[in-house]
Amino acid sequence: xxxxxxxxxxxxxxxxxxxxxxxxxxxxxxxxxxxxxxxxxxxxxxxxxxxxxxxxxxxxxxxxxxxxxxxxxxxxxxxxxxxxxxxxxxxxxxxxxxxxxxxxxxxxxxxxxxxxxxxxxxxxxxxxxxxxxxxxxxxxxxxxxxxxxxxxxxxxxxxxxxxxxxxxxxxxxxxxxxxxxxxxxxxxxxxxxxxxxxxxxxxxxxxxxxxxxxxxxxxxxxxxxxxxxxxxxxxxxxxxxxxxxxxxxxxxxxxxxxxxxxxxxxxxxxxxxxxxxxxxxxxxxxxxxxxxxxxxxxxxxxxxxxxxxxxxxxxxxxxxxxxxxxxxxxxxxxxxxxxxxxxxxxxxxxxxxxxxxxxxxxxxxxxxx
Length: 369
What we know:
Elements: E1 4-10, H1 15-27, E2 33-39, H2 50-55, E3 57-61, H3 71-83, E4 89-94, H4 95-109, E5 113-116, H5 128-141, E6 147-150, H6 153-162, E7 170-172, E8 194-199, H7 208-219, E9 225-230, H8 236-245, E10 252-255, H9 261-267, E11 270-273, H10 282-289, E12 294-297, H11 302-305, E13 312-314, H12 319-330, H13 336-350, H14 353-365
Parallel strand pairs: 1-2, 1-4, 2-3, 4-5, 5-6, 6-7, 8-9, 8-11, 9-10, 11-12, 12-13
């Protein structure tokens, strides 16, 4: 039986969108698929070279930038030229730019094209004119899309609201984690110094500044803490300025890179995820999968990720809410063992990477090649 060539196209392999694509490439059954990864690998936040040797993934490196430009036409031609003699071909685009490339190349190559929106088509941060342009492009591409793979009900609803109705082309397929690591054995003991951490790109949307504001409140109450942000990005200088302004340099640090997120999570007492927008929310699921307490906002797809009585919620995403929850943890108001056990079981039942990839495999297999 001949293998299907599945091509994952992504502008920049960083953050949650990188993890999503890597999970697919690592877990799709090798006997059934030849796997190709097209991206701008110079922007990667991880060394992905192991995918070539360990998972037999072929890389095709393209210089893809965020904003639309004429070079996109050249990149599309390069992809067409690279794949034009490929049989049994499926293209899967991720994010706005990857989605455009996949669907236009799908037409040129007469191959099915799938699209997973990851942000640009979902949140309203570009201003009215730019959003109108992006929404119009997305709307025009709906007929060229074989399937829309949404990572949450929220994502599907936002796309339908702002772009258009995908009809029976829409599929909800939650992201997942492996649940193959030893979970946290002991929880934070009240009264001790509390170790807090956040993980994610340093963007305004990620809300790290909200937590820093919360910690400024707690510092005035003489609560002993240390907060580490693992990430890099455009907001670095602004966050550092806020830390300095509050005189929290000894209590808040930013580490630009972590080669083992799960190890860093296990070292902390609580993970915070104060996102102002989230189509899914990998970080909270990762934390709950190893029984680390997590405090999240209630934005977007985080409503589907949160576990009642298992994860902490700052529903209005304000510094005061985070300060109140952290203070309650420090003073022993919560049974962290019971909460993390509940969150672990709920996430394991809903957010398994095995179930995610099996569903995607069935979608790929069902396409008319």
